[in-house]
Amino acid sequence: MIYYANPGQVSYGETIGLLMLDSFAPFIPGDIGNAHTFPFPVRYETVKGLKVNNMIQFDDTLYKPFLEAGTNLVKNGVKAVTGDCGYMAVFQKRLSQDLKVPVFLSSLLQFHFLKYLINEGEQIGIITANSGVLNQNLLSSININPSYDPIVIQGLENETYFRRFAIDETGILNTEKVEEEVIKVTKQMCMNYPNIKMILLECSMLPPYAKAVQDETQLPVFDYTSMIHYVYSAYVRSCF
Known about the structure:
Helix content is 34%, strand content 14%. The chain has 240 residues and is α/β, with parallel strands linked by helices.
């Protein structure tokens, strides 16, 4: 077999590229911001100056550094690009067109597959960092309409420990307390909407708690890691 080098590329084998907010938060295993989360190498690129509050405001001027970071990932050999904040979905279509590689910025993209796994009258419960931000403007960027799509959205913005860690960016994460909050909110959502048959964790900081959520609800749980593994497995097939 003959291999050819790509100009400007000095490392290889990183199929998935991740665009990272310029965050001040500890990312534990399970969080997509921690490389130990994946059984395969990934490549990270920080979008300088891009804070979570910027994304909440949907500032269009942020697209230029966003595109530059994505371009750097592609130049360094990644085959597909995701990100560590679901609110990046506002740039989903533009970035996909500009990078010319598959782009999957929000775990909510899985909804279009999952909705065919439930029956009429059943619902998918979505846990997000801030339900007020996950509005029609953001959802429409990935072709989800809460007016008729079978979804229930519940946010964690009022949970003390999650808010300190993920929204206020204090730099401190109490995993036990955050897990308790995530479980509490999810169980309450399922009690209020008993037709929920699947859970979709929208926030990239929530996969560390997916197993606990599943244990408590006994429901299938999808998140950023399930989406990333899915895309990776299509690019790097195993022999049987």
